[in-house]
């Protein structure tokens, strides 16, 4: 067989294989876009576990009418323009893949209005069309992405979708993780017209702990110490559970790097080591931790879903995490804030 260039829609569908695993992956990508747009209010409307409808509305900066069709094109992004930008990317997105991938496996409508525009503009995409003709719409400032009938044109992938309840519980988990990453953003999650989760933007430390308690349970906050360490340009803050408040599963471990939830061997190792002497064998620690460091010191371009990162100075990060946590756990007293520089 001779070599041929694949049609655009098929290229996007191949990319969708990596980015759109299930409805919850769409929610993650769209909410991250809302974060990048500076939104502080996000409404997530779901029907039938996200297979029938995923609709995300934000009050962010919006998209210029003339950029709407680019937003749906592959490798088109407003977030980076050069290799230098890529090496110190601070936004959640940068690959320019989510919207074209989603629109290649579902029916997508994008409505957006920028500040001071007379009206909003709407484009519809079902993956095949490349020439969009924006229509005026009364939408307020911000963006709504409406995604319907997921995998309607890829029946083989549709078969892998689980029951509505299961898919929605994945969505709920994703929204909780996202909500822990941006306290300044209010969220509303609706499933089949029923309000499931409402979180107001957080204004005080007490409200911060309320949000954590709402997501991780009040027992977590009652059994956690608040920490804040800074050294050599690295900051680690958040809440670590007392060794007496462990779990049999690793289901309450949230680690964010520059606002992005990640899974990383080096990080897990440092945390495990710190808890090593104080935790019973076979038990797992609980934590909500935020590592902040110069974006140039962490490479987020390691995986399409961006849940993996590479630290440029892995040893430094590992040792910083270990000693911050080791110190915290050596001084455990509930309700106390441990702050120090190492
Ligand atoms: P990426 O986030 O990697 O840039 P996406 O396909 O997710 O790629 O989005 C493409 C572009 O569309 C973004 O770069 C951004 O300019 C625009 N965009 C998408 N969603 C929003 C939104 N909610 N608000 C404002 N702009 C958006
Ligand atoms: Mg994106």
From TrEMBL:
Highest rank taxon of the organism: Bacteria
MF (Gene Ontology): ATP binding; ATP hydrolysis activity; ATP-dependent DNA damage sensor activity; mismatched DNA binding
GO biological process: mismatch repair
Keyword Transcription annotated: no
TM helices/strands, residue ranges: none
Record-annotated DNA mismatch repair protein S5 domain positions: 212-330
Cellular component aspect of the GO annotation: mismatch repair complex
Record's keyword annotation contains DNA damage: yes
Keywords: DNA damage, DNA repair
Family label: Belongs to the DNA mismatch repair MutL/HexB family.
Task performed by this protein: This protein is involved in the repair of mismatches in DNA. It is required for dam-dependent methyl-directed DNA mismatch repair. May act as a 'molecular matchmaker', a protein that promotes the formation of a stable complex between two or more DNA-binding proteins in an ATP-dependent manner without itself being part of a final effector complex.
UniProt protein name: DNA mismatch repair protein MutL
Native source organism of the sequence: Crenothrix polyspora
Taxon lineage: Bacteria, Pseudomonadati, Pseudomonadota, Gammaproteobacteria, Methylococcales
